[in-house]
Amino acid sequence: MTSRRKTCADMAEVRASIDAIDRELVAILADRLHFIAEAARIKPSRDQVRDDERVEDVLAKVRAAAAEEGIDPELIAGVFRELVERSIAHEFALFDQRNR
């Protein structure tokens, strides 16, 4: 991914840049949730929905990626921990819905 980091002339430019990134993030999160739904469809049992080893693997990878980008790894890990926990809850809901 190409960085769009730039010096902005004013707050309008800052806000427009953030808004554009937020739209992209929503699209990326929609893709991520698609694959969460795929996991809920594929996993044969509810006890496979939560995988703590996978959670820690994801967090380790995002910490490393954050460090490469020069941003606070723990800040990013916190954001992703929330994302992962909400994704797991969503996957449980989808799994339960599928198996009613």
UniProtKB/TrEMBL annotation:
It comes from Dongia soli. The keyword Nucleus does not apply. The keyword Cell inner membrane does not apply. Pfam families: CM_2. It comes from the Bacteria. This is chorismate mutase. Its EC number is 5.4.99.5. Keywords: Isomerase. It is an enzyme of class 5 (isomerase). Residues 5-95 form the Chorismate mutase domain.
